[in-house]
Amino acid sequence: MISRFFKKLLPLIGPVFLYLIWSTAVSAKWVSATLLPAPSTTIAYMCHVFATGSIFPDLWATVLRTFYAFVGASLVGVPLGVLLGSSPPIYKSLEFLIDFFRSTPSSALIPLFMLIFGITDINKIAIASFAAVLVIIFNSAYGVMNAKKTRVMAAKTMGVSRFHIFKDVLLMESLPQTFIGLRTGISLALVIVIVAEMFIGSENGLGHRIIDAQQVFNIKDMYSSILVTGALGYFLNLIFMVVERRLIHWGGKA
Amino acid sequence: MRAHVSIQHLCKSFGGVPLYEGFNLEIKKGKIVSVFGPNGCGKSTLINMIAGLQNIDSGQVLFDGKTLEQTKIGYVFQNYRDALFPWMTARENIAYPLKRMGMNTLQVSKRVEELVELFEIKFNLNQFPYELSGGQQQTTSIMRALACEPEVLFLDEPFSALDFEMTLFIREKLQETNLKTGVTMVIVSHDLEDAVFLADQILLLTRRPTQIAALLEFNMARPRLAGSVSDPEFIKIKSEALEIFQREMHRPVLNGI
């Protein structure tokens, strides 16, 4: 019983350890308090910005941009990926381009996007979308290409039409991999949205808030905004994991 | 007894090396035919070509004079895990081909119930394949293959991943199905006893380029039970088949493969 209770506590050890190191570093004056506020101060400040609601406009702006970028990328990426995956010759001919731009840090393209879209909200969403769409295409295509041949053959022997083989078998087979793409995609979109909010003249958003706090040396706000951004990324991932486990119950089992 | 499946002048080569050269075979209606032969002689390739899963280079395969497209077939794969649809329950798997044939919900559930009765299913069909044992999964995939009442049922080493108890059960059910529905069955086997057990005819193949080494008739009474393997009749045909198989194994290779 004790060991089982202890096992449940294991995940807490890391955060508690970090908290202790952090507060020791501040109280023992290893780090100047002007550069790193105590964790208790930071968390208190974070509670304050949530209580007064002053963080919500920024949090909401970031969530909304990430959401738009993700929805745009999914609407383009999933059908395109499935299409490419079901035609290996077309995929092979585009594979290099997809891999090249997938490997290019999307932040490197920010100036290019600024030339095209100007310093607008559309720009931030477009670049985040671009970052997400490639990984979504890639994963959906691979999901279809790696579909179990036996299942496709089984449907074939039943005399099922090509359209239904595609819809009932290939598409379902690709879902686990597609979800990996979507989950990675939304994380990438968040990364790029934060960067874009910092450097593409923005009036709101968590990225804007972090860099603004740094500029005016509001160090507590900077740290608490970083923590909020981290929590946002964590929860987006968590939501996806939960949806995935429900929707794709067979993942990893078959 | 007329021919049901007729294979005429079938040719197939892989990378320029011929596997089948002008292969002819007739399978009689309602019979169970086992295909047995040395490794690499293309047992599975043969039934895959008949079932349309692999292309043939030339030749013709007809079912009662009809083409494959005009014929309902069923196919049971060796690897049931990869053949069942894991996003559907066992029941939905069995119902799937019926649904795609255009049957309404009532007809579908009636047909599924027939199969449940025939196979005396005691496990919960509302489970997903990955929640079932190997034997239950293979039973499900046989039921799915039989759902649309095929004229010919192909089975590619259906027992190779099953334990002995399950093998006995499925052998029994396949015999029953054959007697009840008159479905023609073609079973590929790598185990001689398995090959002999269910067969009305045992098709023994040579090494490649593959020819028929012998087509043995085996008329032992049905139902054949677990004990049938020690029946003198059974032992006689099995040793006859083994003799032919060994003769083929020791024949010098012609094509230098």
* Structural class estimated from helices and strands of chain B: alpha/beta
Helical stretch tally of chain A: 10
Query: What's the tally of helices of chain B?
Result: 8
Secondary-structure content class of chain A: mainly alpha
Q: How many strands of chain A?
A: 0
In terms of quaternary structure, the protein is: heterodimer
Shape of chain A: globular
Task: Report on this structure.
The complex is a heterodimer of chains A (254) and B (257). Chain A is built from ten helices and no strands. By secondary structure, chain A is mostly helical. The two termini of chain A are 34 Å apart. Chain B is of the alpha/beta class and 257 residues long. In chain B, 37% of the residues lie in helices and 23% in strands. Chain B contains eight helices and nine strands. In chain B, the strands form two sheets. A six-stranded mixed sheet of chain B has the order 5-6-7-3-8-9, with helices on both faces. The mean pLDDT of chain B is 91. Classes of the chains: A mainly alpha (254), B alpha/beta (257). Chain A binds chain B through residues 148, 150-151, 153-154, 156-161, 164, 168-169, 172, 175, 248-250, 253-254, and chain B through 51-53, 72-75, 77, 79, 81-87, 96-97, 100-101, 128-130, 141, 144-145, 148, 154.
